[in-house]
Amino acid sequence: MASADNREMQDLSTSAVLGRAALVGLVTGIPTAIIWGDMQGEDFDGTVLPRAMFLLAMILGTVGARLAGLPCWGGVGLAGGTATWLLVGALAVLVPVPESEYFGSLLVLVAPVYVVGGVVGFALSAWSFMSPLRWWAVALVVAVPLGSWGAAQYKPQILAWLEVRSFERSGVPLIAPAIQGYRLVHVDLNAAGQYEPEPSTWLEYWRDATPNRGFSEIQVTVWPAAVGNPRDSCLAVTENFGVRLRCESLPGDRWVWTGAGSSWVTGFARSGDALVMLNGSGIAEADLVAVLSTFRPISAYELAKVT
Questions:
Q1: Which key words tag this protein in UniProt (predicted)?
Q2: What is the distance between the alpha carbons of residues 20 and 14, in angstroms, rounded to a whole number?
Q3: 249 phi/psi in degrees, rounded to 5
């Protein structure tokens, strides 16, 4: 009887093995996701729940591999459970699940992560154990989960590198003002697209309040110079507000607008190959205008680390 079972397992086609393994991964992933979702918010040791879930994936996977008649079901169960858990751990970081208070039940958000990890993990594992043994398939079943898990651990560094590259390739001149007493608190890169006809960078500077003066902020937008000139940009912004505002020319092709009762002052100027706009609140017009001449080169790394 045992030999007949072994012959039947070995006679399975590759597609049949992968299909059964994917089903085992599905059956392993969904209950694990349900239990994990239900346990969130419970008072558990941070190391106990992951270990228990890993053990559960191994048990479910091994039993499922045996019932599915997979070749080398014991090895497939252990390798599949391990691969699944590594992939789930990677996906949970690379595709973070939002907090439950914003979306209610987490099950619908968590289940796809576990299902994808289970299906891929068990399919790779079963494929690597098929006879004859494929060394490259074994390498794949080890490399894919470990590579994904390793990438997840270095996600901040990977994202930082991509952020730097996006600034370098944006086409926007990398410049920023040197504003005494202010700190740069936020940077956005706005790519050209449906809502942005031209690429730009947006920087926000804050000056904290003190007993002698109030809070102040300066918003900076930088475009490539080809976007337009300071005069037309100033007039366009004035018209967009739908109210009568003063747009005044200053020496050096600098323009500034303010309005009666407005706490905001906006200035426009060219700086090298860039058109810049400064929008300030809680700052005198003369001080904002002075900032227009302080733009200097800044590295993509400096910008990316603030975002």
A1: Membrane, Transmembrane, Transmembrane helix
A2: 10
A3: -85, 140
Amino acid found at 288: L
Segment 222-240, tens digit of pLDDT: 999 988 888 888 877 655 5
Query: What gap in Å lies between CA 22 and CA 74, rounded to an integer?
Result: 16
- Residue 231 has which token pair? 């005069």
Q: For 84-102, write each residue's pLDDT tens digit.
A: 777 777 776 666 555 444 3
User: What single letter denotes the amino acid at residue 117?
Assistant: G
Q: Which tens digits make up the pLDDT trace of 190-216?
A: 877 656 678 899 999 998 877 777 888
Three-state secondary structure call for residue 181: coil
State the Cα–Cα distance between residues 57 and 118, nearest whole angstrom.
9
Of residues 240 and 82, the one with the higher pLDDT is: 82
- CA distances 137 to 68, 130, 142, 157, 299, Å, are 21, 9, 9, 29, 44
Strand-pair category, 183-190 with 274-281: unpaired
pLDDT at 284: 84
Q: Which residues on neighbouring strands pair with residue 176, listed in sequence order?
A: 296
Three-state DSSP at 216 gives strand
Q: Kindly report the pTM of this predicted structure.
A: 0.55
Alpha helices, DSSP H, located in 95-134: 100-103, 107-128
Q: How far apart are CA 7 and CA 16, in angstroms?
A: 14
More confident residue, 262 or 126: 126
The DSSP letter of residue 213 is: B
Q: How many CA atoms lie within 13 A of 63 on its CB side?
A: 8
Torsion angle, alpha carbons of 48, 49, 52, 56, to 10: -170
* pLDDT the model gives residue 2: 41
- Residue by residue, what is the 3-state secondary structure of 41-83? CCCCCCCHHHHHHHHHHHHHHHHHHHHCCCCCHHHHHHHHHHH
Q: Is 41 left (phi over 0), alpha (psi -120 to 50) or beta?
A: left
